[in-house]
Design goal:
Number of strands: 13
Helix content: 10-25%
Number of helices: 4
Largest sheet: 6 strands, antiparallel
Strand order of the largest sheet: 8-12-11-10-9-13
Order of helices and strands: EHEEEEHEEHEHEEEEE
Structural class: alpha+beta
Shape: globular
Length: about 210
């Protein structure tokens, strides 16, 4: 499980985090019609591993949100079993307008401190493009045990061609085609936050969009 600490920085984003989904971990409810401003995917840092509490708060407001989830082995009453738990602590992606996000941050009923993950260069909140977020979720939602969640530092070491997956459970996903742990994988990167590497993808199942330098 990734744990990003509060001191980590890079040239693309502020990763001040302690480091994907089935429907019960997402909420697609319609937001209040008073907030028709354009929505974006924001990466929000939550303190002390309270991401599920923040998610519950957002669910009650009808605000779309997403937590990357993965199966983990846990002991319950002396027995080991698998449970779907956050793959990354202290991180919630929130699909919301800027105005509404600011209202939530100032809500006195919200007792959990939250912060934008910010771009290190501009200090602006990181906004994840819709296509990139959909691809990230598509890979994570497979809950494949061979999927890998990567830190910002891990991603910086991976270079490969930009590709589009043509078939299989990752069809349509765009990412970087790299070899990790002896397998060819497609990595969907959210700069300054984290990335996910898919399970094995055969080279015949991708098309190259852009060759690496």
């Amino acid at each position: 499980m990734i744990q990003l600490n509060n001191q980590t920085k890079n040239t693309q984003g502020d990763t001040s985090l302690n480091p994907i989904p089935d429907d019960k971990h997402m909420n697609y409810s319609t937001c209040n019609t008073a907030h028709e401003e354009e929505k974006h995917w924001f990466a929000i840092r939550v303190t002390y591993s309270r991401e599920l509490k923040f998610k519950n708060y957002l669910d009650q407001l009808g605000v779309d949100n997403y937590i990357p989830m993965a199966f983990h082995k846990v002991e319950r009453k002396g027995r080991i079993q698998k449970e779907l738990l956050p793959a990354v602590h202290n991180l919630v992606f929130v699909y919301i307008s800027t105005t509404r996000m600011e209202e939530i941050r100032k809500d006195p009923q919200l007792i959990i401190p939250i912060h934008y993950i910010r771009d290190y260069a501009t200090q602006s909140p990181v906004i994840v493009p819709d296509k990139q977020m959909r691809d990230f979720m598509q890979v994570a939602e497979q809950h494949n045990p061979d999927n890998l969640f990567l830190s910002v530092e891990d991603v910086a070491l991976r270079k490969g061609d930009k590709v589009r997956v043509l078939s299989g459970p990752f069809k349509g996903v765009i990412g970087t085609f790299v070899r990790i742990k002896r397998n060819r994988r497609v990595v969907v990167d959210i700069p300054g936050v984290m990335a996910i590497a898919s399970a094995f993808v055969h080279p015949n199942d991708v098309e190259i969009i852009e060759k690496k330098d």
